[in-house]
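Saturday, quiet lab. Running sequence design on the structure tokens for the scaffold JK sent over.
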């Protein structure tokens, strides 16, 4: 017998004795449609039932839960849930498993021929049902990463206003100056631990896409959840819209951003400062990842904030770590030591300088002098080889300027420097020509060829061209994916040397130990761990990086190494757990549906706190 308080009245409900176990009780309550009574009543003698009521109290019912992408289960709501949550009739009668739902999504997705349409389709799934979206993405990461990320995300940003269905993330525009914190407070999730922010000025190698660059923070954060298990509700994509110099966008009637030229100078810096300060106020302990800022702002912002707040620049630091990991792995095939190499970078910007500086740190760590380490790195920029005799080199380039004859083209530079590796970070497609690659093959038994520019149209060469033009001898990695192919009867697996191998683990590592800063030593550790994770079997197949199917494991290992560095450097403020790896693994989000009426949450993995 249970006493129930209902609207001030005491009611007595008699249950048959065998209904007292939890499942039977909830079934019974569902059958007699007591949901509305439960909402206002208090069971005096059933703690389980009270617990269940409280849980049901706190979640939306009826159509509202179907519209909440974090709570929605679609056709997977059980009969009991449908009863208790007022969903009867709002869904087709048959209850489906998540596996069946995944099957349906993949069936539909694979019918779509165009990748941009697949991108739109997946985004709409994410809008409806985050759990299913992440399950599909994680289980099919090799197939779907090129859709949610490079190259398709590049096209999506170029056409953002035209494929728009629903707004994502937070836009902070120049007009929000003075109220940035209020704008951040409008975000519905109140516990944000991770922001990826862009101002849209250098989206991949596609240039200034203004406010339409939002696709990049959205894509990067989806990968944070899929690859490192950061709970999606903890992350926030941000676009700072200060205008654009892109005439086409300014003339496009559908363009979303401010139709003005970019703010520059003090006005820009003040808005960025307000943003960084506001993040500290509104979302304490939040990690800020700067992404796809122009060269002129990226280095300045990183220098200004890296010691003040928890932040890093992915294009400078994340890219550096994946490039270094690919180099470590490449040396397994080419032989020789790092110090023996001549790395010739095409492009002396964020990615190039970031990579060269990390190579220098790695060499110095191995005992090589800084001067000798810098001598290993050579650059060609838009004006030719970076040599001492050139005027007006910026400070970054000056540090790598060689006492060497000028060269006005990459071919000339290759011929005079005779590099062991060419690394493309210029954002200029097809710059590694047949002639250049043939020269590389003349000078090296196994030339290292890394066209790292994104998206695919901007890759300095394709995987197959690099292979053909070096008689199959190139050791290859690219920024955007190339499919495996067969050369001379042998299967080749082009590595995707993209910072996606790095940033999820670095972010997770910093978040898990509550690091106060992100340091270069963390990226060095990440590079070493990443290269070390290529198994002997994968090495036999010529791989430079573990396959993306292992990205969760990779991110976990990187996160653990990064957190280790944070503890060593006295930056971690979370009490040290007995096992970092176990602790971090326990924080990783696994997209599993919540059991709304059972006594246990099905959703394994608590969000990082
Ligand atoms: N694989 C990955 O994970 C990543 C790849 N990238 C890719 O790297 C590329 C560059 O990015 P980022 O370094 O941030 O960009 P930046 O704008 O900072 O640098 C671009 C560099 O390329 C040089 N450059 C431009 N045109 C030419 C040319 N015709 N010949 C030689 N050099 C040229 C520029 O020269 P100058 O200095 O004279 O202007 C500049 O040094 C992009 O395509 C981006 O997608 C970036 C981050 C990560
Ligand atoms: C991958 C990346 O961050 C870029 O191309 O900008
Ligand atoms: Mg980037």
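Result came back. Writing it out in full:
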């Amino acid at each position: 017998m249970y006493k129930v308080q209902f609207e001030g009245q005491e009611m007595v409900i008699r249950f048959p004795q065998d209904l007292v176990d939890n499942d039977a009780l909830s079934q019974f309550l569902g059958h007699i449609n007591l949901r509305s009574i439960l909402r206002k009543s208090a069971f005096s003698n059933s703690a389980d039932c009270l617990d269940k009521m409280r849980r049901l109290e706190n979640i939306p019912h009826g159509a509202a839960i179907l519209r909440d992408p974090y709570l929605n289960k679609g056709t997977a709501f059980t009969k009991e849930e449908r009863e208790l949550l007022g969903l009867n009739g709002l869904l087709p009668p048959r209850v489906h498993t998540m596996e069946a739902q995944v099957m349906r999504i993949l069936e539909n997705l694979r019918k779509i021929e165009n990748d941009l349409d697949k991108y739109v389709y997946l985004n709409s799934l994410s809008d409806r049902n985050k759990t299913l979206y992440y399950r599909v993405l994680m289980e099919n990461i090799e197939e779907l990463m090129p859709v949610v990320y490079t190259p398709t995300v590049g096209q999506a940003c170029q056409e953002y206003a035209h494929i728009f269905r629903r707004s994502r993330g937070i836009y902070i525009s120049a007009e929000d100056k003075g109220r940035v914190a209020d704008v951040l407070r409008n975000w519905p999730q109140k516990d944000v631990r991770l922001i990826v922010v862009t101002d849209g000025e250098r989206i991949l190698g596609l240039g200034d896409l203004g406010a339409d660059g939002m696709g990049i923070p959205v894509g990067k954060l989806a990968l944070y959840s899929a690859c490192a298990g950061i709970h999606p509700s903890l992350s926030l994509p941000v676009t700072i819209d200060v205008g654009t110099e892109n005439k086409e966008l300014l003339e496009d009637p559908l363009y979303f951003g401010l139709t003005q030229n970019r703010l520059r100078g003090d006005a820009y810096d003040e808005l960025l400062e307000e943003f960084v300060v506001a993040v500290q106020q509104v979302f304490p302990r939040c990690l800020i990842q700067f992404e796809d800022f122009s060269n002129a702002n990226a280095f300045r912002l990183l220098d200004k904030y890296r010691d003040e707040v928890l932040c890093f620049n992915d294009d400078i630091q994340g890219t550096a770590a994946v490039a270094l990991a690919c180099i470590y792995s490449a040396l397994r095939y080419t032989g020789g030591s790092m110090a023996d190499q001549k790395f010739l970078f095409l492009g002396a910007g964020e990615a190039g300088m970031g990579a060269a500086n990390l190579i220098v740190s790695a060499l110095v760590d191995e005992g090589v002098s800084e001067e000798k380490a810098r001598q290993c790195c050579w650059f060609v920029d838009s004006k030719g080889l970076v040599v001492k005799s050139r005027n007006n080199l910026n400070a970054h380039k000056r540090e790598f300027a060689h006492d060497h004859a000028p060269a006005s083209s990459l071919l000339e530079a290759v011929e005079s420097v005779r590099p062991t590796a060419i690394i493309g970070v210029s954002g200029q497609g097809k710059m590694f020509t047949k002639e250049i690659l043939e020269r590389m093959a003349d000078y090296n038994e196994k030339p290292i060829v890394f066209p790292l520019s994104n998206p695919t149209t901007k890759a300095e060469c394709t995987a197959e061209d690099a292979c053909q033009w070096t008689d199959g001898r190139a050791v290859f990695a690219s920024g955007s994916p190339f499919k495996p192919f067969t050369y001379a009867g042998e299967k080749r697996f082009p590595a995707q040397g993209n910072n996606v191998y790095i940033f999820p683990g670095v972010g997770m590592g910093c978040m898990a130990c509550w690091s106060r800063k992100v340091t270069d030593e963390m990226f060095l550790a990440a590079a070493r761990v990443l290269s070390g994770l290529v198994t002997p079997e994968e090495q036999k197949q010529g791989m430079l990086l573990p396959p993306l199917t292992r990205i969760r494991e990779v991110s976990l290992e990187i996160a653990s190494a990064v957190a280790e560095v944070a503890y060593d450097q006295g930056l971690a403020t979370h009490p040290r757990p007995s096992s970092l790896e176990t602790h971090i693994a326990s924080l990783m989000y696994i997209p599993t549906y919540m059991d709304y009426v059972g006594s246990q949450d099905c959703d394994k993995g608590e969000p990082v706190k």
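Notes for JK: The longest helix spans residues 314-334. Residues 291-292, 314-315 surround magnesium ion (ligand 3) (CB under 6 Å). Ask whether to fix the surface positions before the next round.
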